[in-house]
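Q: Two folds, back to back.
A: First:
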Amino acid sequence: MSFWAGVLIVIAIFLLAGVRIADQYVRGVVFRLGRYHATKGPGLYWIIPLIEWQRKTDLRINTAAVEEQETITKDNVPIKVNAVVWYRIVNPMAAVLEVKNIDTAVIQVALTTLRNGIGQHSLDEVLKEQEAVAKVIEEKIDAITEPWGVKVERVEMKNVEIPQSMQRVMAQEAEALREKRARLIKAQAEFEAAEQLSKASEIIMQNPAGLELRRMQMLTEVGAEQNTMTIIMMPSEFVEAARALANQVRPAP
């Protein structure tokens, strides 16, 4: 009885030693005598003690900060840029068998790809189209890490630092563009005003009474400003008529 009890205890310990539990976001890559056997989980599963062992992998999205890199753009401008990479393991077997340290490998690939990717774009593209540039870099990183069972979800450039001299040049360029825009707007306004005045003069020439009404309006506006002097403008016809009348009533010498 004691012998069989001991045997049962040994069997129970052997069975319990092989029990494994994996969370919903964890997978166990099981090896049997050094060779890949299966990917198990999530939940409860069993492996053969002393013959099988496992490596756990986390399937959740990882965030890796790519340290600041100094590179040169396509138009030969030196800049410093850093980025953030979001990635996750989609094939646990490949992530364990193909790469020794998957996190370090992804970061190193992101470093070199970021440096080379920036070199294929001009400074204006890097500054104005960061999302498009980051998307191209994301696709390149994903193509390299795909055989490792890793999916790159997103790449974002956090900061782009340009030299002080280039910042001054860009500020001067922006100021020149603003001045140019202001001059164009002013010229357009003057052109439209001249065009409207031309149309108004044509209308007044067709109806001389309109000119007299405009002169009366000007007198009203001048008087409303409480000026001490008032200028009265009279039509030239009135002046000529008054001059002719004065000549007629003037006594002969």
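A: Second:
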Amino acid sequence: MLDTEITPDGVAVLRLDNEQRRNCVSIAMRDAISDTLDRWAADERVRVVVLTGAGSTFCAGFDLKEFSQPELARTIRDTSRRYHLAVWGFAKPMIAAVNGAALGGGFDLALLCDIRIATPDATFAHPEIKFGAPPLFTPLQWIVGAGIARDLCLTGRKIDAVEAHRIGLVNTIADNVLDEAVATARVIAEAPQAALEATKRYLTSNAGVTFDEAFAVEHDRVFDEFLLGAFGSGPT
């Protein structure tokens, strides 16, 4: 489900490893990511994290099979909240090595990282809007601006790596995306850890609305109104 490695120079690689399901972030995958980041936050060996996917897909989003099971509604919501906040609030720099499609929740996962490096064939989209799931807007508009974010959230259209780079979503395009991401992580790790973590705290703050406040509207309320409202509260 997850493949992890910590190099001697402090670069931790976290690979989503469910290639048959296009590395979708199921309940179990979300919990595994959250648990790993919780451990790594306190692990002095970890300076910078590189997040990537196995095979030719970065992450195809949430496991839609789980959404067809009403009894999982509450668990889906709660694990989703914990996972998103664990990635966003992680105290150390994170780089997304986007090795293919980043769709729906996979798009969000890349957005919650500090830097995005993509292969030439990487794609990004919020197709979930087409089947009634409002996408997260705030992290996207922080990176590419409100106008472009509105376009991508409302249309669900797919963009390629070239367009993603042009609009500032992707920092670098590289054929060997993992090597490029690790090299960037090593440059970041040259700074003292205290400085990196202080800077990360600045990066996750916002003069207007905080991520937690935006997330309560864009995630929690969506689940309450769309998922839990449709299926009932589910087991508590």
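Q: And?
A: The domain at 2-177+192-231 is CATH 3.90.226.10 (2-enoyl-CoA Hydratase; Chain A, domain 1).
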